[in-house]
Amino acid sequence: MTRTPVTVTVTGAAGQIGYALLFRVASGQLLGPDVPVRLRLLEIPQAVKAAEGTAMELDDCAFPLLSGVDIFDDATKAFEGTNVALLVGARPRTKGMERGDLLEANGGIFKPQGEAINAGAADDVKVLVVGNPANTNALIAQSHAPDVPAGRFTAMTRLDHNRALAQLSRKAGVAVSDIRKMTIWGNHSATQYPDLFHAEIGGKSAAEVVGDQSWLENDFIPTVAKRGAAIIEARGASSAASAASAAVDHVHTWVNGTADGDWTSMAVVSDGSYGVPEGLISSFPVTTKDGEWEIVQGLEIDAFSRARIDASVNELAEERDAVRKLGLI
Ligand code: NAD
Ligand code: LMR
What we know:
Layout: E1 6-11, H1 16-26, E2 37-42, H2 48-60, E3 66-72, H3 75-78, E4 84-87, H4 99-120, E5 126-129, H5 134-143, E6 153-155, H6 158-172, E7 179-180, E8 183-185, E9 193-195, E10 200-201, E11 204-205, H7 206-210, H8 213-225, H9 227-235, H10 241-256, E12 264-269, E13 281-289, E14 292-295, H11 303-325
């Protein structure tokens, strides 16, 4: 029996991440090797032609799972019937722009997209926000979609999670696949807290296995937290293929579930767990099953971790207050 295609909407489809992401979605890596997909691409009018070029290349790949590609410059149409929404397009910070200007410019994008998702997306819609500032953009979109369960809006910290796995695997001399229970807490920003106390190598705390507090504090945490800036410095452009890969991982794990004895990092709406104010979209350790996520409960948080989680969560609260002041939520 042929399955009904899953509708995946990608915004910012003509951008760098879009170019690295679309081919992986169309090849089946997002949802699975037996799930046909229909792509709906959203771009601003000036970039529609470039998106059409990408759609021509998608055609030329003859992906067996790709059942169609449509391109829009109108959010309401782009999210009609959407099952999976990948919100990648955002307004990057340009010279002379203050953080408040950036939040306001992105509010102009994520408010109408939240409204469009509310109006026309499928009942089972799952939303991943990649465009920065991702957590707060997700909060803006979610607050304009009152008919969609808040938990369906998530933001991406899987790239930070993957960066943390890579750094730890190199330091400990183990394979990435030997590491379990990595966590990124808080905001997708330089205040994020990658946690090695709950991560495990061979069933033992990764912090204990490494046994080097100075490396953890002065090397590991800043390297992971500032990796985005380091990539921009080296490449002259922000991470693209690794960001697309993390977006694929995020949705694949959400839909297909975490492995027994493991969890992942996702920025999800807080229910007050671990002292994170209710309603903030913050990164937590989460397990997923049958397309639903759950925050891992009962972890002991020592003073070192507490201070770092609080710092990142305070930044999220400040961003929330700023967009509230601007009337965006
Ligand atoms: P890019 O500038 O190459 O592409 C962005 C695209 O979005 C452009 O084609 C632009 O036309 C489009 N766009 C702008 N406004 C739009 C709108 N209203 N509707 C639809 N499309 C719109 O940028 P990129 O490198 O692809 O990065 C995209 C975003 O992802 C940036 O905000 C970047 O900071 C962020 N990012 C997040 C992470 C993460 O881990 N969460 C990692 C890397 C990059
Ligand atoms: C990243 O983590 O690579 C990006 O979010 C960096 C950025 O500021 O675009």
